[in-house]
Write a structure and sequence with these properties.
Elements lengths: L1 H10 L3 H10 L18 H11 L5 H8 L4 H17 L2 H13 L7 H16 L5 H7 L4 H16 L4 H9 L6 H17 L1 H11 L5 H7 L5 H10 L2
Helix pairs in contact: 3-5, 4-5, 5-6, 5-7, 7-9, 8-9, 9-10, 9-11, 10-11, 11-12, 11-13
């Protein structure tokens, strides 16, 4: 199956688009994506190939893509898991969840995190103990922390804000804007479910929030309210 998948992936690869992605994902020396390799595959094309193979590919076959140096191949592997997860039994979901956590070193750019963490980690933990993501948010690894934050999206959609509020407070002093953006985005989603919870958080912490986090969080508020909170911010 690996040969067939590689053939399909190569067909939709583009050197020109790869060059654009190399710049977009900050792969230069000292940047967050340093060393990442792109072949130029667009998300819709990846999803089409995932839909073709996800039912039959085994974890053993998937390992080649999970551990691959090519960014889109890793993204393909973790997207495959999201499709498998939706159709899985509870036992199979546990296996997928554990495979995901075991291979977190390869969930190492923001698009891979954002397209998969809430679909697998968050969804699996909705009715379970969430100690794993509390451990991730305590990590000194940027991507593990982002997995923890984005996983809360599954809880937020269920009206459960405990983890995003806890993580947002903890990450107020984080140094990286990719965490600021993730937290702000999840707070904004919390506001869609309960605007008063967002206002309560902003009233307490807007003065401490990094500017990017604050801007992301207030994006859907009316202009007068946005101006109020921006004036309170750093």
């Amino acid at each position: 199956m690996k040969k067939e998948i590689l053939r399909d992936l190569e067909k939709v690869s583009s050197k020109e688009y790869a060059s654009t992605l190399q710049k977009f994902f900050k792969t230069g020396k000292g940047e967050y994506g340093y060393g990442d390799v792109f072949v130029g595959i667009k998300i819709p094309s990846l999803r089409s190939i995932c839909k073709k193979y996800y039912r039959d590919i085994s974890f053993e076959e998937l390992n080649f893509f999970t551990e691959n140096k090519v960014h889109e191949y890793r993204l393909f592997a973790f997207l495959i898991l999201t499709y498998k997860f939706k159709k899985a039994t509870e036992a199979e979901r546990k296996e997928i969840y554990e495979y995901y956590l075991k291979n977190l070193e390869f969930v190492n750019n923001w698009d891979i995190v954002d397209l998969t963490a809430h679909e697998i980690v968050g969804q699996y933990l909705i009715d379970k103990d969430r100690k794993d993501i509390y451990e991730l948010v305590e990590s000194d690894n940027l991507w593990k922390q982002r997995v923890a934050v984005i996983s809360t999206y599954a809880f937020i959609r269920n009206g459960d804000f405990k983890e995003i509020l806890s993580f947002a407070k903890k990450l107020l002093t984080h140094e990286h804007d990719l965490i600021h953006k993730a937290v702000g985005w999840m707070l904004r989603n919390m506001g869609k479910k309960d605007i008063n919870e967002l206002r309560k958080f902003l009233d307490s912490y807007a003065t401490e929030m990094p500017r990017t986090m604050l801007r992301y969080a207030i994006e859907r508020l009316e202009e007068p309210e946005r101006k109020k909170y921006l004036s309170m911010g750093k």
